[in-house]
Amino acid sequence: MTICLSGCSLVQGGKVILQDVSLQLAAGEVISVVGPNGAGKSSLVALVAATSQPSSGQLSLDGRPYGSISLAERATRVAVLPQQTSLEFPFSVAEVIQLGRIPHGGGRHLQSPMLAEIMDCLALYDLRNRIYTSLSGGEKQRTQIARVLCQLWDRIAGSYFIFDEPTAALDIGHQLVILRLLRDLADRGAGVLVVMHDINLAARCGDRLLLLKAGQVLGLGKPAEVLTAARVTEAFGVMPQRLLLDDGSLQWVFVE
Amino acid sequence: MKGFLPWLALLLLLGTAMVTALLLGSAALPLADVWGLVTGDPGSSLAATVILQIRLPRILLTLIVGAGIAATGAAIQGLFRNPLADPALIGASSGAALFAAGYMVLNLHNSAWGFLGLAGSAFCGGFITTLLVLKIGQRNGTIASILLAGVAINAIAIAGVSLFSYLSSDLQLRSVAFWALGSFNGADWLGVVLALVIPLVVVLLYRNSQKLNAMTLGDLEAAHLGIDVGRLRTRIILYTAVITGVSVALVGIIAFIGLVVPHLIRMTLGSNHYVVIPGSACLGALLLLLADTLCRLVIAPAELPVGVLTALLGGPFFIYLVMTQKGRSGV
User: Which of A148, A248, B2, B12 has the most CB within a 10 Å radius?
Assistant: First the structure.
């Protein structure tokens, strides 16, 4: 049970966006992706989500090449949260979350128990009748995350969740809620790929970490092993200091 | 305001408006004569003629066209993810106007194109411009490029209409102008029969409600939900071209119904297209019927073109909506 990228490159308008990326996302693990702006993180998400095709290389889902899987079928296996969703229509929060059921022919009627569970997870229950367009940025983002969860909530084991910066607009409390949620999805048998801006959050939530720079893989493996001072400096151009926290985890601090 | 109550209210209002529109008009009809018509008693041939040959087809055509342009407005707004989008944006109405003006001014009824008739040319015009906009706009696949192509093609078509107006004789100018304003004055049973394609296409639009719901999230998000965005876009735009083309061909350009009505429905019943499309169809039919009845009455026995009235009332009302409903309406 894996999504497998082998030797994937992406060239757009003569510019190399991703070069020779190989990656296996297995059910039950969280891979976090970090890298500086323009490293190709979102392009990697687009490849895995099949919204763009690689210029060379192959992708497969559980051994089947991507090309042989229809859009509709893929939507019942892979759920994707893009970096930004702009919804300009006055749907209620509950309605937006239910749009996630569309691949299963739903999205029309309330699926109450499932919906309540998901809203509980993201503390959205009290907002369920609010109009989406009137929400704050963080509330909108939680609603969109809930929609993505709703898409595969009844079949988490063996499914794949791809999140592009799910914590970008969230406060610290909600960031930690999302980290727990990602771990929980993996524990229940899903494969999770998550792009993170904050390397500390990325290191904390990923079983493995993928460090990208200029479309190339600088490192892939256990977060503490990948994020050496030398690699972090090479990727971000800033020298980190590593702190060992009381719980044994590492923290990267950047001081000029 | 959820559940069946608003629907019941809408249908009741529709029924009342239909009966009122049947009874009111420049020719005063005694109620007894109208009742005689219902019960099958051939009391007055005047009542029969006025009701059956003039008012009934006109009312039916108004309802069908109103439902069609409001439903297509709802679908286009969902497709373009913009509550301010309008079927006119994709060039269908200006294209139809251009071909109709050309047909009238160049006297094409005497040429090989005569078989098309005025309505046929208008329909072809709407369809061809829409295809052109779609073809140009989809070259790089974004919504913005389709809208920009629409703006450009619209400008060209309107310039063409102006040119034809400039070249026309006084008599032709009058019919071009009158037709561009929109009016149900010439409604007859043939028009009603031709217009029956509109409710069929509205049903097709309705069947795409779920996909349109997904589209409101964005192209990428819709694709992630398993929807073939390019195919859906082509399909909805073609449906729109059919509805707009047929209505413009039969009654001219009717402004603002397609823009304002879906807005009203979203404000009261929510954004789900399973509700917005049938709701807009009902409310569009109702409002256009009211507007047309008003047009028949205000300066009777003469008539206002209904397109003028819908724009006059719809414009300020829309501004009011935009100013007061920020946040809630998503504008």
Answer: A148
